[in-house]
What does this fold into?
Amino acid sequence: MELNLEDIKKPIAKELIEFESRFREAMRSKAPLLDRITHYIVTRKGKQMRPMFVFLSAKLCGDITEATYTAASLVEILHTATLVHDDVVDDSYMRRGFFSINALWKNKIAVLVGDYLLAKGLLLSVETNQYRLLQILSNTIREMSEGELLQLEKARRLDIKEEIYFEIIRQKTASLISSACTCGAATTTTDEQLLTRMKLLGEKIGMAFQVKDDLFDYEEAETGKPRGIDIKERKMTLPLIYTLNKVDWFTKRKIIQIIKNDNQNMEKVRWLINKVREEGGMDYATKKMSAFIDEALKILGEFPESDARRSLEQLIEFTIQRKI
It folds into this structure.
């Protein structure tokens, strides 16, 4: 069954409309250039799945509070800041089918905009006395930075092992979804054991989310993400790591040669994509993704039946059904 985001949003539809208004206000700046750039960001936002995780997690653990809106704004502002910085790091000029900030305003301005958004998020938490949220999200930013640096280090040597890959994606991707679930819950409960469960729930979802992202590189369908982009950026994804561990020495050497020196040659990149498919790299990654989803659903199944739980279950399934 194909899932629809609008149906998933139903238990928190009113809250999301209110959040939209507050988020736009939070992104405003008195500096004309900054205001123009933040307006560009807000009008080209994605599905806003992370605020959805915040509100649904909050509702799963209690009644949504004023602090929940702050948590959702914080998560979305900090997520936006990391995307702006990521585009500079990856030298990427497109984001969700639109020009990235660095493509339109160059790297220097993009870095400063990312810094501004980080400061804006931190100030928002201090001004509203949400120090627990500040603690959770500050730790997340640290983890994301460490994960990015670890990935860059391993990309140079192409010696990444599967366990290192999982540590990278846990820090880079899963930590933010994990913090969205934890922050949401932290606005409606003070039960630390419950918060630990929500943190783990978000982590499992985030791991599956990233593996799904890896699979886009090797899928035939139009996904909005160009095929082979991870190969061109020398990113060691799970389907590729599995293939490198399975093939003979000669093929492994050929693959590494393509990643290192021929990653802009579309014919050779296409050969590599087909090789990963032939060797079962996609099937292996899909099984791992499904295992993370099963673990997430098992954690969620421990909560009482409710509209919020049903929507979270559907949102989890949506993360692996999405086309982009």
About this structure: The radius of gyration is 20 Å.
